[in-house]
Amino acid sequence: MVDVVCGLDFGTSNSTLALIKDGAPFLVPIDQGRSTIPSAIFYNFEDDATRFGQQAVDEYVQGTEGRLMRSLKSILGTALVGERTALRKRSIGFTEVIADFLRHVKTTTEAHYGITLRDVVAGRPVHFIDDDPEADARAERELAEIYKSVGFRNVEFQFEPIAAAYQYRSDAGSGDGPSLIVDIGGGTSDFSIVRANSGGGAATVLATHGVHVGGTDIDRIVSLETIMPNLGLNSAMKGRNLPVPSWIYNDLATWHKINGLYTNQIRTMVRQIELEAARPDLIKRLRSVLEQRVGHALLGIAESLKIELSESKAVSFPLNIAGDPLSLDATAVQLRFFLKSWLASIKTALSDTLALGGVKAHEIGTVFLTGGTTLSPVVRDLVKKTFPRANVVSGDNFGAVGLGLAIDAERRFKA
Ligand SMILES: Nc1ncnc2c1ncn2[C@@H]1O[C@H](COP(=O)(O)OP(=O)(O)OP(=O)(O)O)[C@@H](O)[C@H]1O
Ligand SMILES: [Mg+2]
After folding, report:
1. For residue 95, what pLDDT is reported?
2. 0.90 exceeded by the pTM?
């Protein structure tokens, strides 16, 4: 079998694998013919098999008994990485879950083309963890070990916004003035400033920067603002001037923390809160969500609401929790309001990126947008306002990083 080099973009929400054919990168149809795969794993308790990508999400949504895992990239470099989650007859470490997923992506590609993948340029955010270089280096080591454990021989990392810059240049050529790459995905927002060289060849990287702020944080904010108050968030404990504990709601609105709530200990605690709450009817809904294990489905509704508000001015979602029919209503104006501090973090990160590169906003010739969250008009408006003179372009929102990683892999391993 032929050894082929590849680029692999393991994303918080979606992943891609790209190869090179006749000098040009292409995305492998990795998931039921689609070129992106949701970074989701479902351990099915009914047939003891493991499902990946869209099928994983579908089986969970259909109510199949099992355990859904999402947003696993977010645990790299954190204390959660060493933890395990209970399956039907065994438990599994979070790093093994990531390994299962990456192995699936690798072997699916190998079987499809009859090739062997040994050398990979793997994407990484500029910072896995903010303001903690040690934890950040640990996260990269953890991910490298996982890549090795599934059979990759040479694993080299590239910053995701530099990979996107390679793809942008191969798409669009060089423009006037330095270009700013803005990649806002599910878990992180990553930036680079590159300047094309007049003589051709590799562009000069003027700055790279990134923050652990992304689309999954928007899901959390939307859930906490619109869904969780229906489950008792901000309601009081009886006879006491105290609200019910908010951390449960916070975890229930955070993709990679949901499974941690499905324990007997938490269930007992919630039953106790129900007895002492001023609004036991609301806490009953919380208890039902935990007992039915529909936390991911609920957060999925917050995500859908967010995505629909990228297109529509107002949305309304019917919801049924513990037999109570509810209607979730939200408007684009409300979303902008909810996202005030989220947007402020992105704004700060943009100005920090400019400062790192010694470049002024008005000097940026082109802004290249990629990552699913840059489809949001709230984000686009912020970029246009910050760079009024720049040409704002976008390519494949979900594929640019993977394609750029393959370009990089070809250069590094085939040189
Ligand atoms: N139309 C849309 N409007 C707003 N957000 C969207 C839209 N479509 C997708 N998203 C969001 O984009 C995010 C996924 O983007 P992407 O696939 O680029 O992330 P990722 O590469 O997996 O994450 P990361 O690079 O941070 O690890 C999700 O949070 C998703 O909800
Ligand atoms: Mg990404």
Report:
1. 97
2. yes
